[in-house]
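Record 1 of the preview.
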Amino acid sequence: MSSTHKTINNLFNQLFPILRSITGAGYIKSLNILSKYIKFKKLRYPSGKKVFDWTVPKEWVIKDAYVKVDGKKIINFKKNNLHIVNYSAPVNKTMSLKELNRHLYSLKKRPNIIPYVTSYYKKNFGFCVEHQKRKKLKDKNYQVVIDSKFINGNVVNGISEIKGKTKKTILISSYLCHPSMANNELSGPLTMVGLYDKIKKWKNRQFNYLFLINPETIGSVCFLSNHKEFLKKNLDSGLVLTCLGGPQKKLSYKKSRIGTSSLDKIFTNLSSDGRVLLREFDPTCGSDERQYCGSELNLPVGQIVRTLY
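->
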C-alpha cells in the first residue's frame, strides 16, 4: 500500500465517527484534521450575515438525544449520530406513540438502515430510525429528550492555493458537513487530499489551483459572496468532488451550465470512447455546482462522481 493510500485510510478512520453539521465543533474538528494535509486558511461568516438572499444560520450545539421507554433507551444519538435529525431543536417531554411517530423518520424500502435527515433552516426536531425497529414500537408513553441549543457562531470555509504560471484558476471544491457517511461525505475530501498531494508535485503548472472545503450549499454561497469578482475574472473551470466511492467503476461527469469549459471539453472527449459517463447540467439535484452555475454568475463549474447520489 502506498503512503497516499495509508494517509487516506487513516484520515477516513479519524473522520468517519465525527458528528458534523454545517456549523459547530464537529465540522471544525474535521477541518483541522484535513488541514494537516492541505494548508487551509479559515474563512469565517458569522451567524446573521446576509449572503446574497441567504442568511448564515446560528450554530447548532448538541450534547445528547434519546428516546426512552420502560427505563430503556431505544433510540440513542450517542450510539449512532445519524439517529438525530441534524439541527434538531431542544425538547424534553413525554409523548404518546402517535405523537412520537410524527417526529420519526424511516425508509420502508430500506428497513434496516438509519436514514439521514436535516432541518437546517426550519425549526424542527426528530429522530431517524430503522423502519423494522419503528414497526415494533408499542402503544406506550415515551420520554423524548434532545439536549441541544443554538448560539451565535460561524460558517467556516477552508481555502488553499497552489500557484501556477498564470492567474487563470481551477477550482477544486468539496463539502464537509455530513456525519457518519462514507460515499456522500468523506469520498470528496479524501479525493481532494490525493489531488492536492499530486498537483503540488507538478513542476510546470500553468494554472493556479484553488482548493475549497465548505459546508454544502451555505458554504459555497458564502464563498461566492466575497469571491465572485475574482472568480468571474480568473476562473477557467471548476470541479465539485462528491460521491467518489461506492461500487460503480466508471467516473461520471456533470457538465457546467455553460458546457464549454476546459474541464467540460476534457470529460466530453473522455466520454466519447467510454472512459467516463457524461451528464448534462441539471439544477434540480446535485451539490455545490448548482450554486456556482446559478444564473447570476454562471461559472464554469462541473461535478464529478463515481457512485451517483
